[in-house]
Amino acid sequence: MFVRYLPICYLVFTIAIIGLISACNPNHKAKEIKDDPKKLAEAKKLLNKLNHKYGIWNNRQAINNWNDTSDLDRISTSLSEDDISKMSKPPNSGHLNSLEKQSILRILYQNSDYLKKKDYFGSDRYWESVDDVDDSTFVEKALQEINKFPWRSIRDYDVRRQFKKFSDEFRLILSHQQYPEYSELIAEMEKIYSTTKMCNVTVKDRCELVDAQEMWDYMRKTTNLNELEYIWKSWHDTIGEKVKNNFIKYVKYSNKIAKINNFEDMSAMWLNNYETDDFLKEIDSLWLKIQPLYNQLHAYIRRKLRKIYGKELISKKGPIPAHLFGHIQAQSWAEIGHLTSPYPNKKFPKITNLMIQQNWDEKKIFRVAESFFTSIKLNPMPKLFWQNSILKKPKNQKMVCHAAAYDFFDGKDFRIKQCTKIDMDNLLTAYHEMGHVEYYIQYKNQPIIYRDGANAGFHEAVGDTISLSAFTLNNFKRIGLLKHSAEYDYETMINHLYSIALEKVAFIPFAYLMDKWRYDVFQSRIEPENYNCHWWYLSEKYRGIIPPVKRTQASFDPAAKYHIVADVEYMRYFISHILQFQFHKSLCVEAGEYDPIYPEKKPMSNCNIHGSKKAGKLLK
Q: What beta strand segments (E) does 391-541 contain?
């Protein structure tokens, strides 16, 4: 009898349990408490005002940053500033280059009413609104408005989140203004980095000063041990000596700024941006998963280099000297790929040579990159991009040549600054930087305070994800560099994967130690006299790489990396090198270019999502 009614009993019991859970759930059928409509409307009105003015403020900061890194203030034109400032309208600038035009327009705006009233950079409405944003007081006044408004009691999540982000952002800006020395030190270190010259190693009888980049490029080509050691030592000694004292001061001001913003030190402030409580544990865990693969790559490279340079220089199981990788920081090992290839008879096409033979220029490089994005139904570069970007270093002009993308926060003006050279590396860099611009365009209609990546690693990953598709044989055929599709057999695939590993896997511990070292610096775990020793301790521990010559307490080798002197947080690149392969896998599956069940039929290493609307939609 009991068995007969068991299903009914079970049903009644289930209903009772659901009812009990519902009764215990405070949110179940509870009356939703909504914001007062008037108060919510006032909050949104204030946010609209803040977003509008902050957009103008950010636009000005972007212009200043662009001008500083492009060295616009030093541009000479056929007209003096006095002549320009007296003009009632812009000169006929058809004969001027883009840098000169921007310099003239900036001077005109600063010295006359013309551009403030006319639709030259934007609409009349835009320039009218510019007048009421005073760079020196805007942030302070805006923060006062935020503090007066009772936004913390608002229940609307999005509204409250915007206020919180504005509050944090403005407090950070004010702390920078409170310590102007902080920005001045960074600017000075960047200037030293971009202007420091080296003796040309190929000129034996005298010191012919050349740009450091010229020697770094030469380092990629030579296998002469004396030349490699000289270039490495010369750059590290010169830049370290010039920058070290400024860096020590920079650390102190960084931590002062962090404390003003309620953080223990600058490392805590950087980590807070990832909005994950156990972020460091996650990073450490990721590294431990990748480390075995890196160790195998390192052991393979060490064995190959021992055959080239001898057992006296490279031990059987020890670290490798840093000057042997063809890269000034040894963060990429791609330049020694031709010396260490698993199957040397299976040559990867010399893409750089083909680009030069076909008379590629910097504009074609970026047009080709653009065509990839548009093929997956992402956006073409806007007209202003082609007008304002600097894609080639101007002759006789000093400029920070580190490639960068810029958002000018007006929804129209996006740019890239790159001292483009005609080679495969610069082609892939163009994809990467244009990936940043595509991301800017995707979120251009968001409130200003939200116009950023989900985290810093996302931004870096987007462009690199596209580069993984671009760095395939079928893509090189598609863009006309290869006449016929090369056979993608087993040996070719292994060589291809190996070349990716030299660029991607070799980089991961470098990105990891960059900020592990800075976290220790900011947390005062190491004294300035031990900065360099600790740098090489971490390098040997995580990378198995040591300096090629003796270093001392006076040395400051971290300064050889631009991001150290430029105050650029670097864990983003570690994150991006994980994310890009996750993104790439998902996009390849969506495009039908990779089958995880039968990977041998369509290997992911040969996936090219070009032309896939499905992949583009997923990426959006």
A: 404-407, 414-417
The per-residue pLDDT for 399 is: 78
Read off the amino acid at residue 254: S
Take residue 19 and report the two structure tokens written for it.
């009812």
List of domains in the chain: 183-348+505-569 (1.10.1370.10), 351-485+574-619 (no CATH)
All residues at 6 or more sequence positions from 426 whose CB lies less than 8 Å from its CB, including other chains: 362, 365, 418, 420
The binding site consists of 274, 432, 436, 460, 572
- Amino acid code (one letter) for 580: Q
**Residue 101 clears pLDDT 60, i.e. is over it:** no
Q: How far apart are CA 323 and CA 224, in angstroms?
A: 11
Tokens encoding 554: 């006076």
Q: What percent of the chain has pLDDT over 90?
A: 70
What 3 state SS string does 222-262 have? CCCHHHHHHHHHHHHHHHHHHHHHHHHHHHHHHHHHHHHCC
Continuous segment of H or E residues that includes residue 19: helix 6-24
Q: What is the pLDDT of residue 276?
A: 87
> pLDDT category, 601, cuts 50, 70, 90?
confident
Q: Which of 190, 335, 433, 503 is catalytic?
A: 433
Q: Which amino acid is at 57?
A: W
Taking each continuous run of H as one helix and of E as one strand, the counts in the chain are: 26, 6
Rounded Cα distance, 607 and 594, in Å: 6
Beta partners for residue 321, in sequence order: 546
Beta bridge partners of 417: 390, 404
Paired strand residues for 320: 545
CA 437, 439, 443, 449 dihedral sign is negative
Active site residue 95: no
Q: What are phi and psi of 460, to 5 degrees?
A: -70, -30
Binding-site positions for Zn(2+) read 432, 436, 460
- Coil, helix or strand at residue 307: helix
pLDDT in tens, 466-497: 999 999 988 999 999 988 766 778 898 899 99
The pLDDT of 90-95, averaged and rounded, is 40
Of these residues, 52, 176, 402, 563, which one is catalytic?
563
Q: What number of residues does the chain have?
A: 620
The pTM score is 0.81
- Contacts with 283 (C-beta within 8 Å, 6 or more apart), sequence order: 512, 571, 574, 575
85-106 as b/e: b if 16+ CB within 10 A: eeeeebbeeeebebbbbbbbbb
| pLDDT attached to residue 434 | 96
Residue scoring higher pLDDT (273 or 538): 538
| HSE value, Cβ hemisphere, 13 Å, CA-based, for 272 | 14
Task: Tell me the percentage of the chain whose pLDDT exceeds 70.
Answer: 84
User: What is the pLDDT at residue 9?
Assistant: 39
Whether 563 is a known active-site residue: answer yes
The one-letter amino acid code at 535 reads W
Residue 287 has pLDDT above 80, yes or no: yes
pLDDT tens profile 553-575: 999 999 999 999 999 999 999 99
Amino acid letter, 532: N
Question: What is the pLDDT, as a whole number, of residue 71?
Answer: 59
Collapsing DSSP to helix, strand or coil, 198 comes out as strand
